[in-house]
């Protein structure tokens, strides 16, 4: 009986290891990011029409003093994580970048989303990003080593956690 239990445990461990190695090799999902495509939770027309700019989001965060939940924003995607599609950046009005992660690591987006205009729904907050985390994301974005090495200070920024993303044009 002990032998069967050990054998079962070993086979489960091996299959779990094989599955995790298989999923680690996967990149971002395939797709062309066409107008109307939705990633994560759906975004209805009413939410889409209430989407605000990243500039207005900054003002809303100042009033809220830390966090704004259930907010819809719109913007142009400038970068997508090449490894899994687990984060993206939006261009802001002042040409800085707004960093977006997917809620609970629950969905990913294709790299074809770069250059597309999107509406996102989720939660925004001000956060201090550590040097190590900044370098990690710079490596994911395949930035030059000199640019990664130049990251030496924590950075205060607005972070957005998306529940859903819709391509609008």
Describe what you observe in this structure.
The protein is an alpha+beta fold and 169 residues long. It has one domain (27-167). 33% of the residues lie in helices and 32% in strands. It is built from 5 helices and 6 strands, in the order αβααββββααβ. The chain has helices spanning 2-25, 45-49, 54-64, 131-140, 145-149, and strands spanning 38-40, 67-80, 87-91, 97-102, 117-129, 155-167. It has a 5-stranded mixed barrel. The longest helix has 24 residues, at 2-25. 25% of the residues are buried. This is DUF4920 domain-containing protein. Residues 1-20 form the signal peptide. It comes from Chryseobacterium taihuense.
In short:
The protein has 169 residues and is of the alpha+beta class. It is 33% helix and 32% strand.
């Amino acid at each position: 009986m002990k032998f069967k239990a050990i054998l079962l445990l070993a086979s489960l461990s091996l299959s779990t290891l094989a599955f995790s190695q298989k999923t680690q090799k996967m990149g971002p999902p395939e797709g062309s990011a066409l107008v109307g495509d939705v990633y994560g939770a759906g975004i209805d027309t009413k939410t889409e029409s209430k989407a605000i700019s990243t500039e207005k989001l900054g003002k809303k965060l100042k009033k809220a003093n830390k966090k704004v939940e259930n907010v819809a924003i719109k913007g142009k995607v400038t970068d997508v994580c090449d490894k899994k599609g687990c984060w993206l950046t939006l261009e802001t009005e002042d040409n800085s970048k707004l960093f977006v992660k997917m809620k609970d690591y629950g969905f990913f987006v294709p790299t074809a989303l770069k250059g597309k205009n999107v509406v996102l729904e989720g939660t925004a907050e001000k956060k201090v990003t550590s040097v190590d985390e900044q370098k990690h994301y710079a490596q994911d974005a395949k930035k030059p080593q000199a640019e990664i090495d130049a990251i030496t200070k924590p950075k205060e920024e607005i972070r957005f956690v998306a529940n859903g993303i819709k391509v609008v044009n």
